[in-house]
Amino acid sequence: MLTLLNFLSGPTINLIYIMLICGIVGGVGNTLRGTTCSGVVLSKNICLGIIASIAVPLFLSLVSSDIISSLYIVKKGTDGHSVNYLIFSGFCIIASYASLDFLNNISGRVMQNLKEDNKQVKSEIEQLSKTVETIAVSTESNPQINASELEKFKTPHYTEIMNSIKNKENKFRPIDLIKTEVNQDNTEIDKKIEILKNNNLVKEIELRKGEKAVALTEDAEKIME
Asked: Where is the YEATS-Like-Associating Three TM domain (predicted)?
């Protein structure tokens, strides 16, 4: 309750009042510029005007404007950022006056940003895949385990995981990719990979935060023979 009261105080409540008033004024103005001025048209334009006015903070965020954030920073000797309130009001009036065009433009911009972000994520994933493909298993020696200890890993569940990890180039493979290929519960796969790692049958590297890749050691290759 206190959080809500804090939110609806100071600059926030002022911005809400401005958006509502400007939405109504802009909606009336939008109606007056048309050839039809009925109650239905007026109500429709006022509703669209308020919606467009409420979308102004999103628009300002998309264009990296700091008008709104500056309203929350009160400097000594100022009158409460009256100029920024006037600028914000102007944006809201324009947005509500041309509500349909504004909403169409801002929705198109949001979708474009989402597409660009999606494209960037795909590019990062592709780059990550290329990086994984170029990382080979180190040839440094590991403590050897005897044949009897290797036998306990010759079970269908362990061999299925190791078959997924194994590749001709002896490269690291992402664990998330292995989970899509192995027909076992993801938690069990993580446990078994951890056991394989503790027994020097698997080597693990961290690609980036939260993403890991594994590769088989020479001892694991013996099990696979």
From this structure: 12-121
